[in-house]
């Protein structure tokens, strides 16, 4: 269908209006989630004078312009971020509607709208407090898998992942980032063991899962499919992590697993895989990453349900190379986009981080932008241009 025809533009117009309304709600999430406030009660109100806002105060963008950026009731300035978020949301919804209309994407556009909102809200919160809330990222992973099922039931759509690709994207995405973080932290500790390991499950168990998963793909048997090998690696690696956590609970202390064994052993395993040992380099790499990703999500859901203890003011801590919130955000992106576009998103995010990070440092000194917004930017570029980038890359190799 020609995008200039009325039905297509009608759908895009509705998407823009809906995006602006969702943008208004996104502002509520951005303000309230970090403060652990209900997003439903009390109703929208001025954060300065607490006066409840009426319908005329809540029209996206236009209310802010009409009120000249001030509260109707106390004249306190309203941050320009409110209309900016609404405009970004409206634009994003419109672009997704134009690129993934129902005629070609089925109901897939719904999931992509959800992804856009999660990325927008998460990025804004990360910029504010340098944290990515579990309330966004972990349910987002599950939503990504759910929409993969919806996509399949609605007939599937080119460019959107199947359930298998979504699962693989979530696990490998989390595994890539968490292992990069673990190796980076190991280097920052000058290859010493952590002084304050998590109890009962944390980075030690994740590294163990990666090592075990690298060697477990071959247990699926000769001639097994790549999917069967990957699921075997995930199952055995996750079981190893859970057994280690169970022993910690039973012993009421941390049973240390040396990084030299797990992280060093994983590197050695991949070298051996190059020379034909074990299941082979590709299966070992995929199995190690997916198993580590599965263990990191198990740990993430555990600590989300249990609650992470409040940090004290002590200066005693282990240096960390990568925030765990970024690991969960990458799993979310992988669940919505699949593993191939996830790799594109990661590459673009690293490039954006290097380029824009240098610009920000030159303009604002020591101010730093967290990695979450770069990941969001990489995800959006991968969403719209991922297939072209992948084809160009494969053409370059071929």
Automatic annotation (TrEMBL):
- The residues that cross the membrane are 6-30, 82-100, 106-125, 137-160, 166-188, 200-224, 230-251, 260-277, 283-305, 317-337, 343-363, 375-394
Gene3D superfamilies the record matches: 1.20.120.1220
Give me any GO biological process, just one: signal peptide processing
Localization? Cell membrane
The chain positions of domain Prepilin peptidase A24 N-terminal read 17-99
Which GO cellular component terms, listed alphabetically, does the Swiss-Prot or TrEMBL entry include?
Answer: plasma membrane
- Membrane topology listed for this record: Multi-pass membrane protein
Please give the Gene Ontology molecular function terms for this protein: aspartic-type endopeptidase activity; methyltransferase activity
Q: Where is the Prepilin type IV endopeptidase peptidase domain?
A: 113-217, 255-358
This protein's source sits in the domain of life called: Bacteria
Spell out the Pfam families in the cross-references: A24_N_bact, Peptidase_A24
Q: Quote the EC number.
A: 2.1.1.-, 3.4.23.43
Keywords noted in UniProt: Cell membrane, Hydrolase, Membrane, Methyltransferase, Transferase, Transmembrane, Transmembrane helix
What family is it from? Belongs to the peptidase A24 family.
Q: What is this protein called?
A: Leader peptidase (Prepilin peptidase)/N-methyltransferase
Taxonomic classification, please? Answer: Bacteria, Thermotogati, Deinococcota, Deinococci, Deinococcales
């Amino acid at each position: 269908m020609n995008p200039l025809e009325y039905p297509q533009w009608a759908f895009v117009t509705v998407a823009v209006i809906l995006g602006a309304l969702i943008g208004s709600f996104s502002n509520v999430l951005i303000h309230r989630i970090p403060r652990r406030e209900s997003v439903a009660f009390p109703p929208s109100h001025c954060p300065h004078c607490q006066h409840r806002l009426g319908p005329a105060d809540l029209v996206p963008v236009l209310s802010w312009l009409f009120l000249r950026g001030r509260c109707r009731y106390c004249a306190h300035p309203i941050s320009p971020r409110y209309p900016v978020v609404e405009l970004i949301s409206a634009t994003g919804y419109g672009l997704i509607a134009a690129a993934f209309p129902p005629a070609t994407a089925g109901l897939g556009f719904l999931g992509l709208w959800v992804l856009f909102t999660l990325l927008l809200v998460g990025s804004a919160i990360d910029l504010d407090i340098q944290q990515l809330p579990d309330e966004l990222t972990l349910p987002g992973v599950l939503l990504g898998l759910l929409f993969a099922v919806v996509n399949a039931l609605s007939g599937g759509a080119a460019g959107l992942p199947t359930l298998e690709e979504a699962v693989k994207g979530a696990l490998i995405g989390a595994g890539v980032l968490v292992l990069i973080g673990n190796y980076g932290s190991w280097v920052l500790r000058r290859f010493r063991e952590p002084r304050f390991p998590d109890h009962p499950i944390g980075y030690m168990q994740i590294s163990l899962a990666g090592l075990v998963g690298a060697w477990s793909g071959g247990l699926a048997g000769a001639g097994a499919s790549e999917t069967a090998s990957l699921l075997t690696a995930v199952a055995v690696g996750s079981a190893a992590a859970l057994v280690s956590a169970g022993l910690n609970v039973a012993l009421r202390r941390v049973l240390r697993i040396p990084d030299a064994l797990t992280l060093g052993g994983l590197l050695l395993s991949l070298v051996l895989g190059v020379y034909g040992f074990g299941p082979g380099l590709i299966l070992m790499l995929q199995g190690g990453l997916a198993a580590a990703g599965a263990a990191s999500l198990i740990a993430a859901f555990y600590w989300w349900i249990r609650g992470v203890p409040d940090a004290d003011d002590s200066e005693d801590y282990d240096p960390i190379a990568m925030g765990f919130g970024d690991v969960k955000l990458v799993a979310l992106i992988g669940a919505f986009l699949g593993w191939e576009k996830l790799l594109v998103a990661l590459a673009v995010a690293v490039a954006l981080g290097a380029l824009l990070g240098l610009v920000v440092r030159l303009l604002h000194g020591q101010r730093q932008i967290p990695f979450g917004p770069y990941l969001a930017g990489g995800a959006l570029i991968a969403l719209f241009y991922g297939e072209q980038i992948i084809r160009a890359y494969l053409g370059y190799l071929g």
